Amino acid sequence: MNQSALLHATTLLVTLLGTTTVFAANEVPATSTPAAAMTAPLQAPMTKEQAIEKALKAHPGQVTKAYEDTKKGKKTWEVKIKGDDGKKWEVYYEIATGELIAEEHD
Amino acid sequence: MPHPTSNEIVIWDPLVRGFHWLLVAAFILAYVSQGEPFEDLQDALLREETWQTLHVWSGYTLIALLLFRLVWGFIGSPHARFSAFIRGPQETLRYLKDVLTLRASRYLGHNPAGGAMILLLLISLTATVMTGLMFYGADKGLGPLASLLTDSSESMAHTLKELHEFFANFTVLLVVGHLIGVIWESLLHRENLARAMITGRKRA
Questions:
Q1: Residue A20 or residue B202, greater confidence
Q2: Which of A14, A75, B10, B12 is the most buried (most CB within 10 A)?
Q3: How many Cβ contacts (< 8 angstroms) between chains A and B?
Q4: Is residue A22 domain-resident?
Q5: How far is CA B84 from the centre of its chain?
Q6: Burial class of B142 by CB neighbour count within 10 A (0 to 12, 13 to 18, 19+)
Q7: If we measure between CA atoms, which residue out of B119, B114, B131, B116 comes closest to residue B169?
Q8: What count of Cα atoms within 13 Å lies in the side-chain half-sphere of residue B26?
Q9: Is the CB of residue B162 less than 8 Å from the CB of residue B79?
């Protein structure tokens, strides 16, 4: 392979990586804050401990993981529970409001 | 690095080799960072948020590599071009039969079975990254497809997740087949094909 072909290909690879970096930069939630939420009184964000407590009340069992995640464009606490009912639960609470966003089981 | 012997010639250009090993690294990282069999390892080493970030970035790297390979398959060095190694089903099946009966001819570039495997791997990897990208948009509302898919139903997101996992696991199966093929051909023709993908050189 001659030098110009190598240069051409390297430029191509750098361009593609650059493109996907821009791609990856689009890591912001797609949904915007609703106007009602902006005018609502300020409240303390939900803590991870509060999320775990709430999730365990809804689905008693053993917490296997709890961490910050994004669901439908909202920052959430995801709590994974090995339920006493034999199901594996994933419960999502919005950090800003404490609202239940989703709960799923396998 | 081993010194090239006088009867060796360059078959795989540096970009094909770079593509191959970067693809290997990115796929392993993507699989390990979210694969269920590796949950204990994940918990022991890093936070879940970090694993998710690694998974997304290794996925984006795979997309870049697949786009590159698509272009290089048309304008690359002679042995890298799709036209050099994609054969019809009859020729591929005939070659597979020869492989099993230990009568397969030696090829400098990809043989017909290897070419078919590469095509399958590229298709399966593309399906894996596309369903992953769609799931990322539909479930989390993130990534370049978020604005199109964030309003998808839970069942749609679930289906995309299942498809993503299916194609990821199917790719692993293909990789196993690819490795068996490499070992088989290396023994059959008494040459180290894995080494050739590092040095780029094969016996003339």
A1: B202
A2: B12
A3: 84
A4: yes
A5: 18
A6: buried
A7: B131
A8: 20
A9: no
Task: Catalogue all structural domains in chain B, each as residue range(s) with its CATH number.
Answer: 8-203 (1.20.950.20)
Average pLDDT over every residue of A2-19 = 65
Q: Does pLDDT of A14 surpass 60?
A: yes
Asked whether the beta carbons of B115 and B107 are under 8 A apart, the reply is no
- CATH code: domain of residue A66: 3.10.450.40
CA of A60 to nearest chain B CA: how many angstroms apart? Answer: 22
- Domain residue limits at A82: 43-105
Q: Which of A2-6, A82-86, B12-16, B102-106 has the lowest mean pLDDT?
A: A2-6
Structure tokens at B144: 């370049």
DSSP structural state of residue B109 = S
Q: How many domains does chain A have?
A: 2
- ipTM for the predicted complex comes to 0.72
pTM of the model: 0.84
CB contact under 8 A, A16 and B60: no
Longest dimension (CA), chain B: 62
Nearest CA-CA distance, residue B188 and chain A, Å = 29
Q: For Cα atoms B136, B141, B144, give the angle at the middle one, nearest 5 degrees.
A: 65
- Shared-domain flag, residues A53 and A100: yes
The span from the CA of B24 to the CA of B155, in Å, is 32
Q: A66 and A101 share a domain? A: yes
Residues A65 and A97 both lie in one domain: yes
Q: Torsions phi, psi of B26, nearest 5?
A: -65, -40
* Confidence category of residue B106, pLDDT binned at 50, 70, 90: confident
> For residue A20, is it within any domain?
yes
